[in-house]
Every structure is written in structure tokens, then in C-alpha cells.
Amino acid sequence: MKYIIAIIQPSRLESVKEALSHIEVFRLTVSDVQGIGRQKGHTEIYRGHEYKINFVNKVKLEIAVDDKYVNSTVDAIADAARTGEQGKIGDGKIFILPLEDCMRIRTREKGVDAL
Predict the structure, then answer these.
(1) Degrees, nearest 5: CA angle 68-95-61
(2) pTM for the whole structure
(3) Closest alpha carbon to 8 in 64, 81, 89
(4) 48 vs 45, 71, 89, CA distance in Å?
(5) Topology of the domain comprising 2-114
């Protein structure tokens, strides 16, 4: 089993969810997050004062999958999260981590059965 964490642009969330549903990956957790990367923030003007915004709003997806679904899940996220043909700085990152075990609380099923 693997634990996939994807950090993407908020505007790409719907297309990523749609791409995941096409490959029958329906279980995921979504969080609004902020971070600093190559984009290095931006400036905004509020009531006549300029402010530097260091943190950029992103969306974090967390998905636990069986090993046989890892490549298709990562490919679906990468294709749907990319902006334009070549992509742009700030499109995001995907992290793939080993998942030792999991348990469904309701039934106490463990491992792949709990996914």
C-alpha cells in the first residue's frame, strides 16, 4: 500500500477529482493549505498599502491506494493538475510514501481490505 500526497493549485481540484473518478479512485481527503515554493509569494494592495504575501494557497490531497493503483493514480493527478501543455511553476508536487498498515474503525478491517 502507498500513501499519496499531492499539493495542487485550488483551481485544478475539480479536474483532478474528475480524473481520479475515471480510474475509479473515489476515496480521498482534501485540505486547504498554504506554502512557499518557487513561486515565492506575491504582493497585494489593500486600502492603499502594499503587502507581500509569502504563502500561496494550495490544496492538499491525501489518498491511500493499493500498490497496483499507484501509477494510474499518480498519472491521473499529474495530468489533471498540470496547467497548459508544458505546465507552469506552482502546479504542485506529488509525494508517494509507503503505507505500513491501516484500519477501518467501524469493522476493524486491516490492510488493503480497509482501503
Answers:
(1) 85
(2) 0.86
(3) 81
(4) 6, 49, 29
(5) Alpha-Beta Plaits (3.30.70)
